[in-house]
Amino acid sequence: MNLHPQFKNPKFYFIIFTDAAFFIISMVAAYLFRFEFSVSLERIQQIKSLLLWIVPLKFIFFLSSGLYRGMWRYTGIRDFWLLARTSFLSTLVIIFIILYLNRFEGYSRAVFIIDGLLTFLLTGGARMMIRSYYAVYENPRAIPGFSRKIDSKRVIIVGAGDAGEKMLREILENYQLDYQVVGFIDDDPAKQGRSIHGVRVLGDVKKIPKIVGKKDIREILIAIPSASGNQIRSIVEICRKCDASYKVLPGIGELIDGKVSIKMLRDVNYEDLLGRSPVSLDVGSISKYLDGKTILITGCGGSIGSELCRQVIRFNPRCLILLDASELNLFNIQMEIKNTKLSCRHEAVLGHVQDKVLMHDIFKKYRPQVVFHAAAYKHVPMQERNPWEAVFNNIIGSRVAMEVSLEHSVECFVLVSTDKAVRPSNVMGASKRVAELIMQSKQNHVTRFIAVRFGNVVGSSGSVIPVFRKQIEQGGPVTVTHPDVSRYFMTIPESSQLILQAAAMGKGGEIFILKMGTPVGIADMARDLIRLSGKEPDRDIDIVYTGLREGEKLHEELITEGEDILPTGHEKIMVLRFGNRAGEMTAIARKLDENIEELLTFSSNHDAKAIKKKLKEMIPEYIPQESETVL
Description:
Layout: H1 10-34, H2 41-64, H3 77-102, H4 109-138, E1 153-158, H5 162-173, E2 179-185, E3 195-196, E4 199-203, H6 208-215, E5 219-222, H7 229-240, E6 245-248, H8 270-274, H9 283-290, E7 294-298, H10 303-312, E8 319-324, H11 327-339, E9 346-350, H12 356-366, E10 370-373, H13 380-385, H14 387-407, E11 412-418, H15 427-441, E12 448-454, E13 456-457, H16 464-473, E14 478-480, E15 486-487, E16 489-490, H17 492-505, E17 511-514, E18 520-521, H18 522-532, E19 543-545, E20 564-567, E21 573-577, H19 582-590, H20 592-604, H21 608-618
Parallel strand pairs: 1-2, 1-5, 2-4, 5-6, 7-8, 7-10, 8-9, 10-11, 11-12, 12-17, 13-16, 14-19
Antiparallel strand pairs: 3-4, 15-18, 17-21, 20-21
Helix pairs in contact: 1-2, 1-4, 2-3, 3-4, 9-17, 10-17, 12-14, 14-15, 14-20, 15-19, 15-21, 16-18, 20-21
């Protein structure tokens, strides 16, 4: 007969005998307290008879509740609640047994209530003593008053909320973290002067420089994941005046699983200063069309595509099909998914979306039910000089993906579009506008085709921020095209989450627009990034204006003339209604295939001038660059 491992452990029997002793002590003490330490011989005999069956009964309750499976050195709040519940239930059963046998004749009800309380206090106290012993042995700073490492880094935590408390608890419980938390900083007057785990809230944000100097603080930990961009900007400006480094906990949008850890602390970046408010998702509606489904994401290795993968796996898809033309990008996102806690079944396919034979093979083999089409070329000057690639990838690739989806009865097709499709001044924007027209021409009652249009994504590949960072690392100058140029920005997680939400809302044929907030001046962005690097703009790092590049606008737009924008049920998502342009759009849709074939011919001949001229015919609001594009 194989015994359970716990029955082979000598410590298990030590725990049993210890608890048995506590059961006896609690019952005897209950009688002493109830009868003011004057117990008659009759009561002593009563105690003996009760102990014969009460001790085994309590042991059965403790054993069946799992209290002996845990290790006392790791006793926590959950264990104490379990202990309290077990003590209460065992006391309740004892009372019912006494009541059933003799209706409490000759017994005091108070004795059994006191016994239950003492059982909890004694057994819980023993577990706490063992927990405290190991805490002090392994980590002296876990207990107030015990010694700390002399050379520990002295830090303060900005934010005395849940995130700050969890951070402090992790530091206290992990002696390997070489931090000594001196205090909290919080602007809430109700928290100032109070303590969290023995650590006081020393004052508000304005007092940081004084506290840093007085307390010899070496690092400032900003733990306010719900803070706005302006709040983070204000805190960072104050921290920069101090002789201490500073790190920040990512915002709520980045804390996908809601967990806070010291490992998540990082240097402040521009996304923190941008401070987009957290996205509120209707998880039920998104789960309805993703849960248990096979999802295809084209361009899965790009900035948006890879984040879509991270977001989609949260909704328990049956299978995730990864398609990308870049071997490295495909490998990276495949490895990330494989190693994440939320990993799901996935298949990686290396190839181009414009390869119709490959696309048919993918759909036949895996039968995707939802398609997110994020594969596209997006670098404006590059597409301006190589417009045939914009046609091959952004137009032909999108058409192939939509046609194959239609033939295989995909439930939902989501086209990731851009604000550059609005009154386009470049080939990239015009090609995405054509993709939107294709999407609207493919509507039927089987597949929901929708598009989601948004602006620049902070930190995406080829975006301005990585370029600025590289220039700052090299000592400058930082090049800005124009002093007044501005762009809309949102973070990668925010854009991907809103794409999922918009897809859940679409009935078919809509172009959804994500609210981008206030446009950000690129020159202001450059100055912020220079300051984040610890330098001063125009003193340590110069800013040089180079003039607008090919195809660039001074300011981006989200809608064009004749497009009617309407609110939706989500505060950050709007939808376009085309009103009196419907007839015009229908006429354009009828000629789309013919026009696209001409575009394909020009592209095969690398005829940039003809490509732009044809795009102008197809998109009347498109204003092509006059400069000749050459190979």
